[in-house]
C-alpha cells in the first residue's frame, strides 16, 4: 500500500502536463537571468512559456492527466512570471511605482479570489455563474474575450520592455514616441492598452467581490451557530 | 434581513483590527513611494506597519473581532510588502536575480502552502501537527523561534536597503564592508542571516510538503469511489 502510494505520487509528478510545467519554470529562470543582456532571446523564451501555459491544459485533458498539483503549478508559475516581468519593468521605467502597484494588484486580486473560491466551494475562480457584476460576466463568460485581455496584458509588458533603451525611461515619453513612429504600432498599442485596462479593472472588481465573499462567509457561519 | 446583512458586512469591514489593516496598507503605500528619497522615513513606516501586523491579531482576539477577511487582509499585506521590499532591493543590488528568486520563493511557498491547507482542511498553515519534518516541527512548534526567523528576514532586508548608497551595489561587497566597520554590526548581521536562512529553508520544505499534499489529495480522491 505504501509502495503503491509512493509510485502513484511520482507518477503524478511525471504527468506530461506537469513536465511541461517544469519546463516553463526552467525557461522563465533562463529568460530572466539574461533579460538585460539578450532582450530578443528573453522575449522568445517568455513567449514559448506563455504558449506552453495554454498547451499544458490541453494536454492534461487529452491525456486524462488533469491534476490539482498541475493546476496550482500553472497558477503559481503565471503569478511569478508576471511578477518578475513587472519587476524588470519597474527597473527600466519611471515611475517604477506604477509597476509596483500593478504587481500588488495582481497578487492581491488573485490571492483574495482564490481564497474566496475555496470558502464558497467553487472549483475555479473562473466559475462565476452567480456573480452579478456585468463586466465580470462579460469577462469570464466569454473565454475568447478573456483570452484577449490576458494575452494583451502580457504582450504589452513585453513590448514595453523591448521599447526601453536605457534605464529610467519615462513611460509616457516612450509610448508617445513609439506611437508616432508607426501607425501599425499605435494601433497595436491601443488594442493592447484596451485589453490591459479591462483586465486590471476586472482585477479590482475581483478583489471587492472576493472580500465580500470572505465577510459573508463569517456572517453566515455566525448565523448558523 | 437584507438590511441586517448589509449592516453586518460593513460592520466587519469596520472591525478595529481591519481598520489597523487598512492603515498598514496606507503606510506601505506612502513608504514605498518615498523609499528612495527618504530612506529613514521609509524604514520607520515599514517598521510601524510590521508592529501593527502583530497588534491587529492581538486586538482581534481581545475585542472578539476575529474575521476571515481580516486574516486574509493580513496575509496579503504581508506578501505584498515583502515583495515590494525585495523589488527595491533588486534595483539597488547586483545580482538583482537573487532578490527576484527570493520573491519567487516567497510567493510560491506561501501560495502552495495555502492551497494545500485548504485541501487538507487545516485552519492555518501554521498548524502542522502531523508534519514529519523535524525542521518544520521546530519552526512552527516554537512560536518565539518562528517569530525570530520572520523578524530577522524583514530586518535584514531593511538593513540591506539602508546600507546601499548607490545603484547597482555588489551585495557581498556591501555586507563585508559593513561587517568590517563594527563588531556589533557583524554580530547583528550574522544573527539576521541565520534567521533568514532558516526561514528560506522552511519555505523550500513548505513547497515540497504542500506539493505532496496536493498530489495525495488527487490520489485519495481517485481511491475513494
Automatic annotation (TrEMBL), chain A:
<comment type="similarity">
    <text>Belongs to the CDP-alcohol phosphatidyltransferase class-I family.</text>
</comment>
<dbReference type="GO" id="GO:0016020">
    <property type="term" value="C:membrane"/>
</dbReference>
<dbReference type="GO" id="GO:0005794">
    <property type="term" value="C:Golgi apparatus"/>
</dbReference>
<keyword id="KW-0594">Phospholipid biosynthesis</keyword>
<dbReference type="GO" id="GO:0046872">
    <property type="term" value="F:metal ion binding"/>
</dbReference>
<feature type="transmembrane region" description="Helical">
    <location>
        <begin position="12"/>
        <end position="34"/>
    </location>
</feature>
<keyword id="KW-0460">Magnesium</keyword>
<dbReference type="GO" id="GO:0003881">
    <property type="term" value="F:CDP-diacylglycerol-inositol 3-phosphatidyltransferase activity"/>
</dbReference>
<dbReference type="Pfam" id="PF01066">
    <property type="entry name" value="CDP-OH_P_transf"/>
</dbReference>
<feature type="transmembrane region" description="Helical">
    <location>
        <begin position="40"/>
        <end position="59"/>
    </location>
</feature>
<dbReference type="InterPro" id="IPR043130">
    <property type="entry name" value="CDP-OH_PTrfase_TM_dom"/>
</dbReference>
<dbReference type="InterPro" id="IPR048254">
    <property type="entry name" value="CDP_ALCOHOL_P_TRANSF_CS"/>
</dbReference>
<keyword id="KW-0464">Manganese</keyword>
<feature type="transmembrane region" description="Helical">
    <location>
        <begin position="99"/>
        <end position="123"/>
    </location>
</feature>
<keyword id="KW-0808">Transferase</keyword>
<protein>
    <recommendedName>
        <fullName>CDP-diacylglycerol--inositol 3-phosphatidyltransferase</fullName>
        <ecNumber>2.7.8.11</ecNumber>
    </recommendedName>
</protein>
<keyword id="KW-1208">Phospholipid metabolism</keyword>
<feature type="transmembrane region" description="Helical">
    <location>
        <begin position="183"/>
        <end position="198"/>
    </location>
</feature>
<keyword id="KW-0812">Transmembrane</keyword>
<keyword id="KW-0444">Lipid biosynthesis</keyword>
<dbReference type="InterPro" id="IPR014387">
    <property type="entry name" value="CDP_diag_ino_3_P_euk"/>
</dbReference>
<feature type="transmembrane region" description="Helical">
    <location>
        <begin position="144"/>
        <end position="163"/>
    </location>
</feature>
UniProtKB/TrEMBL annotation, chain B:
<comment type="similarity">
    <text>Belongs to the CDP-alcohol phosphatidyltransferase class-I family.</text>
</comment>
<keyword id="KW-0808">Transferase</keyword>
<feature type="transmembrane region" description="Helical">
    <location>
        <begin position="98"/>
        <end position="120"/>
    </location>
</feature>
<keyword id="KW-0443">Lipid metabolism</keyword>
<keyword id="KW-0460">Magnesium</keyword>
<dbReference type="Pfam" id="PF01066">
    <property type="entry name" value="CDP-OH_P_transf"/>
</dbReference>
<keyword id="KW-0594">Phospholipid biosynthesis</keyword>
<dbReference type="InterPro" id="IPR048254">
    <property type="entry name" value="CDP_ALCOHOL_P_TRANSF_CS"/>
</dbReference>
<dbReference type="GO" id="GO:0016020">
    <property type="term" value="C:membrane"/>
</dbReference>
<keyword id="KW-0479">Metal-binding</keyword>
<dbReference type="InterPro" id="IPR043130">
    <property type="entry name" value="CDP-OH_PTrfase_TM_dom"/>
</dbReference>
<feature type="transmembrane region" description="Helical">
    <location>
        <begin position="182"/>
        <end position="198"/>
    </location>
</feature>
<feature type="transmembrane region" description="Helical">
    <location>
        <begin position="140"/>
        <end position="162"/>
    </location>
</feature>
<feature type="transmembrane region" description="Helical">
    <location>
        <begin position="12"/>
        <end position="34"/>
    </location>
</feature>
<keyword id="KW-0464">Manganese</keyword>
<dbReference type="GO" id="GO:0006661">
    <property type="term" value="P:phosphatidylinositol biosynthetic process"/>
</dbReference>
<feature type="transmembrane region" description="Helical">
    <location>
        <begin position="40"/>
        <end position="59"/>
    </location>
</feature>
<keyword id="KW-1133">Transmembrane helix</keyword>
<keyword id="KW-0472">Membrane</keyword>
<keyword id="KW-0444">Lipid biosynthesis</keyword>
<dbReference type="GO" id="GO:0005794">
    <property type="term" value="C:Golgi apparatus"/>
</dbReference>
<protein>
    <recommendedName>
        <fullName>CDP-diacylglycerol--inositol 3-phosphatidyltransferase</fullName>
        <ecNumber>2.7.8.11</ecNumber>
    </recommendedName>
</protein>
